[in-house]
């Protein structure tokens, strides 16, 4: 039963709107499934971005000060994990390794940190390229320890090799029979929770005939990536550019791709929350709880996360427009409060919340600044 006197208050700040709710710092690897509420990771498929579009984007702090730009990402491919972003500070001659979970939001125009500018300015600096893997690991460990508040050198890791995204993009993919399966043209990243969702491969190597592969299905060889798959099967499922990018965001389709390659997805497509379901009762498989009156639906916390996700899916620029919005959910009734830029934003956000919670379930107390 839902607690009748429970009130869950979530600050929808620049630190949290795009990630919906900051996940636990240690819940970002595939080695620890089940750390997120049912349906949460499935919902986030629509928020992943192409690595090629993220690299080079400006980086802002939570007060919207421009800090520099994203140079690259260090990842552990087999673990499906983003270790850190390599950030080039504005006006600097060095790089800073910023853990993925220190980021609050990302879209195709900018990336935002959930930390203050002073924190970045005092971070460990890398001024020369580190070719030695042990030296690179120590630098990344120390940097992640600095941002996470842990002892230097104690970063939790999977033991897998770190590699830059830019080094993976362009690699040829082959199978055990040495058939050419194409070239990696992108990696699909969800930065705030540190996930590589897919590697995107082009059969002809030029961007045509696209197919997606879960990162755990790829093994690094000498200058290539290895995939256990037949070229004929991949060719039959490859899709044109215009259709492909939409399909991979659909939970059921994405889960099917994982299982086709012998990988169990870390998201539960069947447990995904469905916005706008009948009378606001969202379909939750195992994670649903009985609400007052015997209604089966999500918990207040799950409802809050679903509203946040729906807002960002509607317009990712919301992450950069607001200083603070509050969403209070009690027994399935949603109250929105705080300031937004105009009346249109107030009405749009109210409509989005209502499409998730149900008609008549939202008390919109947002104040338009103009």
Structural class: alpha+beta
Architecture (CATH level 2) name of one domain: 3-Layer(aba) Sandwich
CATH fold category name of one domain: hypothetical protein tt1634
Helix fraction, binned, reads: 10-25%
Report how far apart the termini are: 42 Å
How do the helices and strands follow one another from N- to C-terminus? EHEHEEEEEEHHEHEEEEEEHHHEEHEEHE
Count the helices. How many?
Answer: 10
Low-pLDDT parts are: 1-34, 151-155, 271-296
Tell me about the largest β-sheet: 7 strands, mixed
The backbone outline, from C-alpha atoms, is globular
Rounded to an integer, what's the Rg over CA atoms?
A: 21 Å
Give the rounded overall mean pLDDT.
77
> What percent strand?
25-35%
CATH class of one domain: Alpha Beta
Q: How many strands?
A: 20
Defining traits:
alpha+beta, hypothetical protein tt1634, seven-stranded mixed beta sheet, 10 helices, globular
What is the topological layout?
Elements: E1 8-13, H1 40-43, E2 49-50, H2 51-54, E3 58-60, E4 66-76, E5 81-89, E6 96-99, E7 103-106, E8 111-113, H3 117-121, H4 133-148, E9 163-164, H5 165-168, E10 172-174, E11 180-190, E12 195-202, E13 210-213, E14 218-220, E15 224-227, H6 231-237, H7 241-247, H8 251-260, E16 289-290, E17 296-297, H9 300-314, E18 324-330, E19 333-340, H10 343-357, E20 362-368
Parallel strand pairs: 3-8, 10-15, 19-20
Antiparallel strand pairs: 1-18, 2-11, 3-4, 4-5, 4-9, 5-6, 7-8, 10-11, 11-12, 12-13, 14-15, 16-17, 18-19
């Amino acid at each position: 039963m839902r607690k009748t006197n429970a009130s869950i208050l979530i600050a929808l700040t620049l630190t949290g709107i795009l990630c919906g709710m900051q996940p636990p710092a240690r819940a970002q690897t595939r080695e620890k499934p089940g750390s997120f509420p049912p349906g949460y990771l499935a919902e986030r498929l629509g928020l992943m971005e192409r690595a090629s579009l993220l690299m080079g984007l400006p980086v802002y702090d939570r007060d919207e000060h421009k800090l520099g730009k994203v140079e690259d990402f260090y990842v552990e491919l087999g673990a499906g994990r983003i270790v850190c972003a390599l950030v080039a500070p504005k006006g600097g001659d060095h790089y800073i390794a910023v853990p993925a979970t220190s980021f609050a939001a990302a879209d195709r125009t900018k990336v935002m940190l959930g930390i203050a500018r002073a924190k970045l300015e005092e971070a460990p600096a890398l001024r020369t390229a580190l070719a030695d893997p042990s030296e690179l690991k120590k630098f990344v460990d120390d940097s992640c320890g600095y941002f996470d508040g842990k002892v230097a050198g104690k970063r939790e890791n999977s033991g897998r090799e770190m590699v830059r995204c830019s080094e993976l993009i362009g690699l040829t993919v082959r199978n055990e029979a040495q058939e050419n399966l194409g070239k990696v043209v992108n990696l699909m990243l969800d930065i705030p929770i540190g996930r590589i969702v897919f590697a995107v491969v082009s059969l002809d190597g030029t961007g045509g005939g696209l197919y997606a592969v879960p990162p755990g299905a790829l093994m690094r060889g000498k200058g290539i990536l290895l995939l256990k798959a037949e070229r004929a099967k991949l060719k039959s499922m490859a899709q044109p550019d215009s259709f492909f990018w939409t399909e991979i965001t659909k939970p059921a389709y994405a889960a099917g791709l994982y299982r086709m390659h012998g990988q169990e997805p870390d998201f539960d497509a069947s447990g995904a929350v469905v916005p706008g379901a009948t009378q606001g009762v969202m379909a939750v498989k195992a994670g649903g709880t009985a609400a007052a009156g015997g209604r089966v639906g999500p918990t207040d916390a799950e409802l809050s996360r679903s509203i946040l996700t729906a807002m960002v899916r509607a317009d990712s620029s919301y992450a950069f427009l607001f200083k603070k919005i509050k969403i209070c959910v009690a027994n399935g009734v949603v109250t929105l409060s705080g300031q937004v830029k105009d009346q249109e934003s107030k009405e749009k956000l109210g409509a989005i919340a209502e499409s998730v919670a149900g008609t008549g379930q939202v008390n919109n107390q947002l104040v338009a600044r103009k």
